[in-house]
Amino acid sequence: METYDIRFPTSRELDGSDAMNPDPDYSAAYLVLRTDAGDGVEGHGFAFTIGRGNDVQVAALDALRSHVTGRPVAELCADPGSLSRDLNGDSQLRWLGPEKGVMHMATGAVVNAVWDLAAKRARKPLWRLLADAEPEWLVSQVDFRYIADALTPQEALDLLRRGREGREARAADLVRRGYPAYTTSPGWLGYSDARLTRLAEEAVAQGFTQIKLKVGADLEDDVRRCRAARAAIGPGVRLAVDANQRWNVDEAIAWTKALAAFDPYWIEEPTSPDDILGHAAIRSAVAPVKVATGEHAQNRVVFKQLLQAGAIDVLQLDAARVGGVNENLAILLLAAKFGVPVCPHAGGVGLCELVQHLAMFDYVALSGTTEDRVIEYVDHLHEHFVHPVHVTGGRYRAPSAPGFSSAMHPASIATYTYPDGTFWAADLISGGETA
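Structure for L-fuconate dehydratase, as requested:
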């Protein structure tokens, strides 16, 4: 297991800027699993951070190495849940969570790398590996501890068995038409109104039927920016807004109502991601504007409570925040049980590449629908991946290459590894002026 600290200088163009994160340098605490199987197949995984946090995140990955190295490859790929259970069960590391924060993100990165390895060895894209799997095996991959009061193994099995009905027709439809996307690319908080307008108009011309704007720093600015965005996209395109946890509950209600004239489809992360009852209060007060959250939800237990409390209209799982594919299977099953649509969080470094597989599995073999469901899309950093996402006409095209789409080009790793990669070494010499 090899680890890398990979950072991109996105803060210099304010890409990714929002009300809580004004200067993000999109980064990946990255790992590669290599085996002696002789087939040259590797497993790639990562945790997404926004800069200096990688110092801590890579150290967390390294702390898990002893659980990974030396395991029989075939056995591990046949049961990734065995590693997930071992990583979450390390009592000394679990103390740092439990099942949340830096260690849990590290667990997710390692587990996702195993799924990448398993899918490559099966010669299938991950969405297809999951969709083809027997329901009983998928249930065996889920940890029902702490969620069985809301979703039992038998209920999960019933959902997956129903999801198999018609799956081949849906898989063919997915390959033919793709999966609906929305774009956040026009809406970064640091962009000028002119740039926002130009990118919003381009998004509509490209076929997107929903865009998203960052809000929450200044109400007067948000009113002006929402007005410009609505004028650019017209009344028939959905406009979502995202506060990135900026507000108290009462602020969230007042601010969202102040933006209601621009017909926002949802308000995203209006308050602390841990505040279940706060989200429920906001949802009750701002309807018909929907409430969406989940990219910073720590684990399946938080998602369970959001659903039990009727706190959200849209569930936004993240491929690299929780404990990997296994825990995201639990979250998808919970959403299916409660009938809440899943619109995954993406963007960042490689999150689009990962999350497309989870949403596509959900459509093909679980929920069976894409109604009111979209995957976030942000148009940057995809060129660093061996199998980047392909979005045309406002839709994600189904990946066909085996694996989890998580492998980065070796040249990108060599260039952007911090602090000794060629970009950062030159940047140090130039005093931070490298572009």
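The chain has a mean pLDDT of 96.
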